[in-house]
């Protein structure tokens, strides 16, 4: 029971959901894949490459925008629990038990949603679970862009924190320019490391990331993977925004290969 969620429910908002289906309408028993972007990003971040590619591999694919992001309705007072509500509502509306794929802080939202929604499986990409080490790492690499966030302002991430040097500068600039401000309350929640409740139904959970990520440290990546009984799937040389980086196809193909294995 979560009495706080009953007495003070999440405010209803319009939710943006982009969908791609396989060319063959008879997609069999393959589960739908729901992509959840991290803070500042919208569904567009997956629609650029991963959404269509997932459908081409035979999986019905959807990407959503959390409230206040992309084309979803605004909510300046949003907190993590509101984002979790959005994800569980979108997932529950899909025709079959879904695979939840979260990126960055969206991976934390997915991990929390797994305690409420019986997913087919979960995938946490470059997961940001918060904590002092994350904040200190951001301060060390980008103090001018991080300090405002400690006082309710916008965290301005550098292109070099999000992408590898192999992504053309014009593409990196275009993507970075689309990042949106995150509500102060949701942002402050990441100052403390979050500990999601156990997932219902004991689904398999894959953790993927890059040892060269300038937002998520290798130690943080290992910590999240250990929570789910495994080791992270690593893609050296990639930036934090793996779904937009130059080698975007490698991680999504590895994720879909994992989903195609028996038992996933």
Q: How many domain units? A: 1
Count, helices: 12
Level-1 CATH class name: Alpha Beta
Q: Secondary-structure element order, as H and E?
A: HEEHHEHEHEHHHHHEHEH
- End-to-end CA span: 29 Å
Estimate what percentage of residues fall within beta strands.
5-15%
Helix content: 25-40%
As laid out across the biggest beta sheet, the strand order is: 1-3-2-4-5-6-7
Average pLDDT across residues? 91
CATH architecture: 3-Layer(aba) Sandwich
**CA-based shape:** globular
The CATH superfamily appears as Alpha/Beta hydrolase fold, catalytic domain
Gyration radius, rounded: 17 Å
Question: How would you characterize the largest beta sheet?
Answer: 7 strands, mixed
Please count the beta strands (DSSP E, at least 2 residues each): 7
What is the CATH T-level topology?
Rossmann fold
Estimated structural class: alpha/beta
Low-confidence stretches: none
Write the layout of secondary structure elements.
Layout: H1 3-7, E1 17-20, E2 33-36, H2 44-47, H3 50-56, E3 61-64, H4 80-92, E4 99-103, H5 105-113, E5 121-125, H6 132-141, H7 143-146, H8 159-162, H9 169-177, H10 184-188, E6 204-209, H11 218-227, E7 233-234, H12 249-260
Parallel strand pairs: 2-3, 2-4, 4-5, 5-6, 6-7
Antiparallel strand pairs: 1-3
Helix pairs in contact: 4-5
Task: Kindly describe this structure.
Helix 4 packs across helix 5. The relative contact order is 0.16. The model has no long low-confidence stretch (mean pLDDT 91). This protein has 264 residues and is an alpha/beta fold. It has a seven-stranded mixed beta sheet with strand order 1-3-2-4-5-6-7, sandwiched between helices. The protein has a single domain, classed as Alpha/Beta hydrolase fold, catalytic domain (Rossmann fold), CATH 3.40.50. The protein is globular. Helices cover 35% and strands 11% of the residues. It starts with a helix and ends with a helix.
